[in-house]
Amino acid sequence: MSAAASGSVGWPAHLHVGHPMALRSGDRIAVVSPCGPVLDHRLLDAAIALLSSWGLRVVEGANVRAAAGHLAGTDEQRTADLNAAIADPAVSAIWVARGGYGLTRILDGIDWAALAAHPKIIVGFSDVSALLLAAWQRIGLVTVHGPFVGRLTVQPHGVRDRLRRLLFGDPELPPLTGTPLRGAPATRVRVPLIGGNLTVLAALAGTPDAVNAAGHVLLLEEVGEAPYRVDRLLTQLRHSGALDGVAGVAVGAAVRCDPPLTRPSSTFADVIADRLGDRGIPVVTDLPIGHMPDQSAVLHGGKVTLDGATGQLEAHDRLPLRA
């Protein structure tokens, strides 16, 4: 059961939207920038062409290429684009152009009632973890933790094909394989997967959208953080109670989280073992989820099996096909 269904984070207990419908050829996709500004317009243009080759009709938000300091336009512009895509009955999916920072600033301005009434696919990760988590905990909406539009053309062909199959409702996606954490229980759990970027999840602690991972597999991924910072972030989650009752942890392969060369340091793997290895739950690391070039997409809120013996993460849900 989702946090939305239980009412445990203060949102209406009756809201549990579930899965949006899978895409099909001819569907309209809205590209928006609710976080940082687009840095490479050529990559964005190439990705839009790629999505068009999948048979999708791509429309850009009015402010998708805007910039206001470190943000992709003002809070008002970014919120307006997101809400316009939510309100448009012709839009089947909302796909974020780029991450960076900015979504936590506009969470309360999103028209959640409209999204609950007309659920759509939402795709993104990193800073967009705040949106995916809020959508799950506020209205019970399953979303897609996957690459930004601007990253699509730098992904290997096989990874892009897996993403396309997920979005179009293919039920035969192979499991992802990581590394079981040594010393953690070699057990299996079958529950929904939620979470995302570790920095974002730690920043949400103490807010109405703080992650409630009880009864879930918690997904964690990180980029560009030294091991001591990863330690600090995980300790924040521990102290805030975010890990209380968590059923398992799926950790994406760390990117640029190497220890410094100029002073003593633990490794990323050391910190994961120290901060998560005492929970008595299966923990799998090195999964191909996050900021790596071969980034695999997963359903945020979708039911998975996490196997602490084999290191496999197997999805059981799919986006439902339309008649």
What is the average of the pLDDT values?
Answer: 94
Query: Could you give the order of the helices and strands?
Result: HEHEHEHEHEHEEEHEHEHEEEE
Lateral strand order in the biggest sheet: 6-14-13-8-9-10-11-7
Principal-axes shape call = globular
Question: Can you walk me through this structure?
Answer:
This protein is of the alpha/beta class and 323 residues long. The protein is built from 9 helices and 14 strands. It has an 8-stranded mixed beta sheet. α2 links the parallel β1 and β2. α7 runs parallel beside α8 and α8 runs parallel beside α9. The longest helix is centred in the C-terminal third of the chain and has 14 residues. The N terminus is likely disordered.
Name the features.
323 residues; alpha/beta; eight-stranded mixed beta sheet; 9 helices; 14 strands; 20% strand; disordered N terminus
Short overview:
This protein has 323 residues and is α/β, with parallel strands linked by helices.
List the helices and strands and how they pair.
Elements: H1 3-6, E1 28-32, H2 41-53, E2 57-60, H3 75-87, E3 91-96, H4 112-117, E4 121-124, H5 129-139, E5 143-145, H6 157-167, E6 176-177, E7 179-180, E8 188-197, H7 198-204, E9 217-221, H8 227-240, E10 248-252, H9 268-276, E11 283-287, E12 298-300, E13 303-307, E14 312-315
Parallel strand pairs: 1-2, 1-3, 3-4, 4-5, 8-9, 9-10, 10-11
Antiparallel strand pairs: 5-12, 6-14, 7-11, 8-13, 13-14
Helix pairs in contact: 7-8, 8-9
